[in-house]
Write a structure and sequence with these properties.
mainly alpha; TerB-like
Length: about 140
């Protein structure tokens, strides 16, 4: 497999979060696409490559130690100043259906630790996400 880019590594983290409960919902997949199409971090990423990148991640996940390998690859590939952005992208996918399962919470915990995202930043990301998803009803 060729060298992974920071774009691909962030997508890997979104895929890992979505797949953590073994049920990648259409809503989660759509949110991954939304993030890739609308977040500034992906401005110079060819969105037509999204499916291929997600498939590459799935292949890695099916290997021995897949989750650890994907997370380690992401940690080492994504520049440190973008670790909080990567966590925010993963959290976005986990929160989109307004229901977080234990598996998703566990993956997010692993990402916080491996990406060394400090607790105040985590709280801010999570609070902002909740605020964004509120409705009038």
């Amino acid at each position: 497999m060729k060298k992974t880019t920071a774009h691909a590594a962030i997508i890997y983290l979104m895929v890992v979060t979505s797949a953590s409960d073994r049920d990648m919902t259409d809503v989660e997949l759509a949110r991954i696409g939304d993030v890739v199409r609308s977040w500034p971090i992906f401005e110079d990423f060819d969105a037509d490559r999204l499916v291929k990148v997600a498939q590459d991640c799935q292949k890695l996940l099916h290997e021995d130690g897949g989750l650890e390998r994907v997370v380690g690859l992401a940690r080492d590939t994504i520049p440190v100043h973008l670790h909080d952005t990567a966590y925010a992208a993963a959290f976005e996918v986990a929160a989109v259906d307004l229901e977080m399962r234990m598996e998703e919470l566990r993956v997010l915990q692993i990402l916080r630790r491996e990406l060394a995202v400090d607790p105040l930043t985590v709280a801010a990301i999570e609070r902002a996400n909740k605020a964004r998803h509120r409705t009038l009803t």
